[in-house]
Design goal:
The chain has 331 residues and is an alpha+beta fold. 39% of the residues lie in helices and 28% in strands.
Length: 331
Amino acid sequence: MAPVTDIGIDFGTSTIAVYMRGKGIILREPALVAYDTDSDKVCAIGEEAKHLVGHTAGNNVAIKPLAQGKISDFMITERMLKYFVEKAMGRRGILKPRIAICVPSGVTEVEKRAVIEATYQAGARDVTIVKEPIAAAIGAELDITKPDGNMVVDVGGGLTDIAVISMCGIVVASSVPIAGDNFTHAIVSYLRNQYGLFIGGQTAESIKRKLGSTSSTFDEKKMTVNGRNVMSGLPKTVTLSADDVRQAFQKPMMDIVEAVRNVLERTPPDLAGDLQERGIVLAGGGCQVTGMAQALEKSTGLHVMTAQNPDSVVAIGTGRYTSVLAEFENR
């Protein structure tokens, strides 16, 4: 049986969240590193890196250590984990922490060992690997210890993890590289193609928050967007509507719906019957696009609910995993 976890880490493509036993979520910062290419050094991590990149000399570049659930740079990953572990622990005792860290359901053994090694190098005493859909289910307060089927769709920044879970295990699962970042990129591409307007990622994120929806609403909002004319390179302004964003969202939304349907088609009949009663739980920061639950309901015929505080459930579930597993094993 794994030891009780001190820290649970949701190490995502876009955001890192840290859960501490008895404290809850204590950190949530961008999963970003500012790297100085001239001096070959890490300049800042997390929130500091976000503010540094783009506001200083061009030699500072942004690095995301995790790309679609896979470690893209081991050294940078180790530095980032160590930074957040030390920031979370502060001066709390001398002993190294027992850390649980989540990974996508489709991770390979090689990738899993890389995550474990990086976490040990970051200062862990013990490391427990938790598959992301199980962490999301626990954080969403689903009882996964019973022989009943529960379905979780965890939409992160770079990856959507879909799984049917029963008795603390994954029965059917799929990980697809379509998630919150794809909705942001879709806005950038749409504006370039339809309006000849080039915008940056932060502007696209702002549009996603204000106008982002996959379904029609009675209040068709509009906003003014400033950017650069693709042809002339000069400043340009357009008025964007919610319908524009809805069109931009069609492709990534259809990809997620298709992935969910694929998992449902592979679900054993008895567990599929459970899902008729229990429905689907949406989790992850990327699931907060308005209309996503309705789009899934329309396609699957199942009730779809969004977890409370969806961007926190994976970190919470990762931190609580060993306790839930101990309870299951002691039955």
